[in-house]
Amino acid sequence: MADIQALMHQAPPSLAQYRRQRAAADLYQRALPGTIFYGIALAITAWVGGYFPHYGGAMAATLALYGVLGYLRWVHTPPQDSADTQASDRWWWQHWALVNVGCLVWCLFFLAVGHLEQDLSTAFLVAAMSTIAFSSAGCETYALHKRQALWVVVLLQVPALLYFAVAVPALWPVCAVLAVNFVYQLTHIRRRAAEYDTQMSIEHALLTSRAEVERLSRLDALTGLANRREYDSTFRTHWRLAARQQGQLALMVVDLDHFKRINDTYGHLAGDTALRHVAQLMEARFKRASDMVARIGGEEFAVLLPDTNAEEAMQLAQALCHTLATTPVPWDAHHIPLTASIGVDCMRWDLDLTPQASFSRIDSACYTAKAKGRNRVVQA
After folding, report:
1. Of residues 237, 215, 222, the one with CA closest to residue 7
2. How much is the pLDDT for 82?
3. pTM for the whole thing?
4. CB-based burial of residue 114 (10 Å sphere; 0-12 exposed, 13-18 middle, 19+ buried)?
5. Is 339 within 8 Å of 321 (Cβ atoms)?
6. What is the separation, in whole angstroms, between the first and last Cα of the chain?
7. How confident is the model at residue 339, as a pLDDT?
8. For the chain, which domains are there?
9. Which of 13, 69, 214, 271 is most buried as measured by Cβ atoms within 10 A of its Cβ?
10. Active-site choice (299, 300, 311, 312)
11. Alpha-carbon gap, residue 197 to 250, rounded angstroms
12. 122-155 burial string, b = 16+ CB within 10 Å, else e?
């Protein structure tokens, strides 16, 4: 069974963990289509330049390499456990390596086109426009990590630009345009990276707020126990699972005796202290991860005990009844006596057709305990 109390009190992921998880998912999704567009641009450039008849093997090998890179990006999915920082970091740098290899392959192809053409031919202009498009898309798409986005833009353009500037003077005009575009992209990356970081912080704040609201909606504000809503949901889930497996599931309904008298005699603050006192005693006694202690009414509590038979549940209920009776509530200079009437039983699959029927039967046993003089346990 799940650790119910831990699930109710668990915190949302830290900002660092959320950033890792979200950035990994974004990188994976954004990197997927890249190799397809590289391949399309390469094929168009090679067709315009007439490279297939003369360099068909090299073109086919490059297209095949992009196919392999695309497949590796697809199968290299982010780790499921973002709390494992070593696995997350390892995946992160491996995936960036796949991205960077794709960028470098395109840059080498662009360099080769310039070397072959030696002028502003149609094939070179197609390759140059593709390079501008890829670097512009890269500085936008990969701005989730500023340094890596800079590497993408550098790998796509700088090696080829340096070669053209030194070895192919006829391409200097295009080099100048690409250099201006490169500087603009560097400033754009800084701005987009800052915006992405801000977006992550806002998303995490909203996630944390929503998780906290959801957690508080399932807790009793006074005692910190599960509230009626959480109890009803959990009881139905456990009841259906146990019914399907014909397994053992016990329920205890606890009603404090003469609780109104405490409020009338000592005041409502004393009553609140008494409820917190009872909650602490019950949580200390029912420590299994699968056990659930809930406050389901004013002075009424319920204890859900999976994998517990009727005899075991009866012993636990009697022990709780004794603990409550022998542990008075400390209040100022007083020690307020407090007892409880308890109804308890294991689910009976021949009688209990619904969760409501099970609860009603055991709740009736609690009222029977009151009718018989209180401070006692009655098995339904």
Report:
1. 215
2. 64
3. 0.61
4. buried
5. yes
6. 25
7. 95
8. 4-213 (no CATH), 228-379 (3.30.70.270)
9. 271
10. 299
11. 49
12. ebbebbbebbbebbbbbbebbbbbbebbbbbbbb
